[in-house]
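Task card 7
Instruction: Convert sequence to C-alpha cells.
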Amino acid sequence: MCLFSHRTAGALLELDEVPSGFVEVAIPTAKKAPGVIVHRLAPKDLPRSRTAKGYRITDVERTLFDLFAVLPRRRAELAMEDALRRRLTTLDRLWNVYSRAGGRGRNGSRSFRAALLSRDFRNGSLASRMEAGMLGLLRMLPGPPPTPQHEVSVDGRRYLIDFAYPHVMLGIEAHSLKWHMGQER
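Output:
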C-alpha cells in the first residue's frame, strides 16, 4: 500500500502554507523512485487514508503531524489552523494522532505537541487565515494571551470580538479585505 503523504497530501488538501511541487509517499518498503521522497513505515504503522482529488493520501490528522517534520513550525501551525477552521479535523483527533505516532525520536513530534498545547479550545473557530496569523503575533507579546472570539453584550445585543483582553477592556478585530469589506470597497 502506498499513500501520498507530508507536503503532497497537504497540497492536495489545499492547506495554507503547504508548498506544491513535492512528491512524498508513505510506503512499507524501501523502494525508491527518482524525484520521489519516500517515507518508509512499518506495515503496522501505516496511517489511515482518505481520498483527495482522486488520490489516496494520509488522513488529515497524520498529514498535519507529518508536516511538522518537513515544514518550518510557523508554516505547519498555519496549515493546522486552516484545517481546524475548515473543520477538516478537531483538536481531539489531533491529540489522538499524537498519542499514536508521536513521541521521542519522531521528527516534528515536539513542535506538533507544543502547537497543540498552546491552543485554546475555541481557537478552532477562528474565521480567517488573517486571524490565525494575528493570534500568533498576539501570543508573542508578554502577558496573558488574548481570548479569541470573545462575546460582549452592548444594549442587549451580543457581539463577538476577534480577540480580547477583558481584564483591560481591549478588543481587537482582524479582518482582511476579503472578509471585512470586499475588493470594491
